Structure prediction request, 760 residues.
Amino acid sequence: MRSFPVWIFCLFVSLLTCFSGVGAQETKQKAMPITPPKLKDYGLQDYVCQTKTLPRSENKPWLLVCNLPHNAQFQPWIEVEAPSGKTILFDSTNPFVPAIQVTQQYITKSGKQSYEVPNWISGEGALYTIPAGVTVTAVKYHETGFDTGFNGSFSCNDNDYNVLWQKATRTCYLCMRDHYMDCPDRERSEWLGDAVLEMEESFYAFDTTANVMCKNLLLSKQINDLPGPNLVAHGEFGEWTYYMYTGDLATISAIYSSTKEYLNRYQPGRNGLPVHQTEGWDWYDWGVGTTDKEVIQVAEYFTAINALRKMANVTGHNGDILALDNQIISIKNNFDKVFWKGDGYRSGNDLDERANAMAVVAGLADPSRWSTIGKVLETKMNCGPYFERWVLEALCIMNKPDQALLRMYSRYKYQIQSGFTTLWEYLERSFADTPPYSTDSDTYLSLNHAWNVPNLILSKFIAGVAPETPGWSTYHVLPQEAFLTSVNVKVPTVKGMVQVEIRKNEKLYQIGLTSPPNTSALVGIPKASFRTLTNIKVNGKKIWDGSFKGAVDGVSWIGEDSNYIKFKVEPGTWSFVASGILPMTTPKQAPIPSTDVKLDKKLWTASASFENREYKIGCMSGSMNGKFWPVNAGAASAIDGDFWTGWRAIDPQKPLSESGQYKDQQTPGQWFMIDLKKAQTFHKIVLDNTWAIYDFPKTYEVYVSNDTTNWGRPVSSGAGELGMTTILFHPKTARYVKIVQTGTKDKPWSIFELNIYTNK
Prediction:
């Protein structure tokens, strides 16, 4: 009998372990300790503005609304003179917070006293309920938060993206404290899918003290019974990203075994791909349309198993590599056979942008497929902000930065223009009006949520700064600035600050780089930015004019590919200037700076055709699902400076139908009026209902008067707009302004903040 060849036996063993396990279970390493995060105390600070002038006392209970400069974790503080036994209430103006935290209160003693609530709340404003007979002499707020610096930055010539970067960064910071959380105003749990996105944001937005929270996430992470987010966390976007940005091999070594153990859950199917895992909550994204979970899960698993293969290599688990390679090859060979349908990747009849984006990001979509996939990503707008991250990244990978920036603006447009400083769980915050809201009930999700990461896309892909090797020993600057003409970015790294400045005009493309010690930077001049590229200089010396002309000290030639002409530079300050002809057309005009000035409205009063002192809102998710609570909706709330408080015109004579829908809520003649207290000149009114984006007036007319009797003809008329209705007219001088609703609609109209503007 012939002997059985050893190499065939080894191959057989490796194939047996291909999906059922990646080798023998190794001895688990001793658990690494969790480092308790530190908190930063910002001290007592003055509010930006408040609705009443202090000191103040009234002979009836009254509300004091105070605005912070940004959404924050804070504790309201008050100083009063009062008799004993009076109860003061403290809340956030964020309407969700009172639903998850008991309203804090203070019972006064006799005399002058001050008090700070013991438990932090979140929001952009504080709401004090003051009893009759209490004199408020001062109010302040005490902000605390995770102890890190806002050292990263991004700015460009289009301020829409600057605003978005700042709001995304503020959102991320608000969702950090003892650990990453998905939001502070609905639940404060550390969900893996949210947390790994926050982690990567942290590397671009905050100083390296934030790395302790990243490390704690990996060391303490629990399986949340969500296959999709678990695969994101246990792979390329979680553990391997952490290693690339920190170089912390000890942590990667400590979590290798648990990562491998989790991925062993995914078993092979007959088609050569892992069987769809549905254990727990098979969730991947909010949004509309069909989420193609089969395609997404295979692609996410592919990123995870690739990351595990790289982890095995750097941590010395060489015995696992052959089995991992076999899994990788099997998925590569079968992914297109099973899922490519000619018009994109899909497992059924529905073409999903999420699935196609993840196929690109995972590296499973061959570049020959990119043109077809690009059409899917440019036309379908179904995903929520969680998967928007990978759609935008996929567009950048496919060399479509123009489309990425345009999509980013389109999807975040209403949040960019709003007065809020954070980004929401959905891309459009609304009282239920369209899917995924199935009925017109007043329910919503959180008002600041961790999975919004346009700042990450702008810094990592548009500015093009990211590590090439673990710990930033080598990193690249490969800009994809698209139609932007200037970009400045600062990235705090474990090696020091990386600073990049990009400028371009019709003839020159300039990259300024400050590179920290102990690094090598790969700098690419993007060919897509040029119609014709003639030469490149570094620190004033020509080094390329169609071919390499010789090195400058500290600069070496790498070569070129279809996208970039590349150089490697040592630490220091470098100036790259490329000459040629650059197309400067843009599909998006940068916002024009306004010279308008808001009128001070502290003394204004407001009234309406009917006053709703409160309405009820509820939550449609999580432990609060099905719960409703009252929110104040008096007319004064529309001019208190806070975008979460407002007047909502729900006609009390027209209650909800049995199906939970409003009927004929907007009818002609409903009005809202402001008394400016003195005649003033103005030319623009903005009605902001971004928080309830579909609550705009169907049609309107605007009148002005000095006596509330002689209104004359309307100074303006038109139709309301999603989120924010801007009303322009020739300058008028008057004391009273009245907005009259003239249309009919089965939907209330709201004014959550009203501002009136004059010229500078």
Confidence is low (pLDDT under 50) at residues 1-29, 430-442. The two ends are 99 Å apart (CA to CA). The chain has four domains: 39-146, 153-462, 472-581, 596-759.
